[in-house]
Design a protein that fits this description.
About 40% of the residues are buried. This protein has one domain. The chain starts with a helix and ends in a 6-residue tail after the last helix. It is built from ten helices and two strands, in the order αααααααββααα. It is globular, with a radius of gyration of 18 Å. The protein is mostly helical. It has a two-stranded antiparallel ribbon with strand order 1-2. Helix 3 packs across helix 4.
């Protein structure tokens, strides 16, 4: 694949949230406001890029039998850096993300790219893949959050919108509204990709980013 294809595949065609349904928990939990979603997306992207680079660099050094514990240690280290940075310089965002910030450590998006891509490819390609997947993850969170904040709070990034600031549907800021917005965004993604996103999910283990780790082989 070309570098451009590697970069762009994670945005729609192989979006980790909208196609592979990875990272659903933070996607719904912190997407009530666009600013929180953007912060979570960028934090996850940073951890994803750093993890992919280091794992690609050490792919011939890390023993296969202990690769998962090694991944956890690496990811947790970068998550700690993000936590310390946000705590020091962006404390309101740190409080808004809450427990979901340290839970980036067990985000399936990061584990999937480490296992499926970074351990098999060069540093350059792994970093490009991480940027693309991180942008796709951020885009999905921001899209969901935009719908929820605009319709549920009548604002966007904290800026009040005319009419909507008075007449808004508060349920969109709650959990049920998150699922509704998530469904809307998935439908739009499938429409834009002309159904290719849905077909990829229906392709069985061969089309799953976690196929190499679940132990099912090629069984659908």
């Amino acid at each position: 694949m070309s570098k451009l294809s590697i970069l762009t595949k994670g945005i729609v065609r192989e979006n980790p949230v909208l196609v592979f349904a990875l990272g659903i928990c933070p996607a719904l939990a912190v997407s009530s406001f666009a600013s929180n979603a953007l912060g979570m997306g960028l934090a996850t992207t940073f951890v994803l890029i750093c993890t992919n680079i280091v794992i690609s660099l050490l792919r011939n050094v890390i023993p296969d039998k202990v690769r998962i514990p090694c991944y956890i240690v690496l990811i947790a280290g970068f998550v700690t850096i993000v936590q310390m940075f946000l705590h020091a310089y962006m404390y309101p965002l740190y409080l808004a993300l809450g427990i979901f910030l340290p839970l980036i450590t067990c985000n399936c998006v990061i584990f999937a790219r480490a296992e499926i891509y970074a351990k098999k490819n060069s540093i350059l390609h792994s970093s490009i893949d991480a940027i693309g997947m991180g942008l796709g993850f951020t885009f999905a969170l921001l899209a969901i959050a935009s719908i929820r904040e605009i319709l549920g709070a009548g604002s966007w990034f904290g800026l009040e919108l005319p009419i909507l600031s008075t007449y808004h549907v508060s349920i969109f800021t709650l959990a049920p509204g998150g699922f509704v917005a998530f469904g809307i965004i998935i439908a739009i993604a499938n429409k834009v990709s002309k159904g290719n996103a849905a077909k990829l999910k229906e392709g069985g283990c061969a089309g799953c980013t976690m196929a190499a780790t679940c132990g099912k082989g090629g069984v659908n």
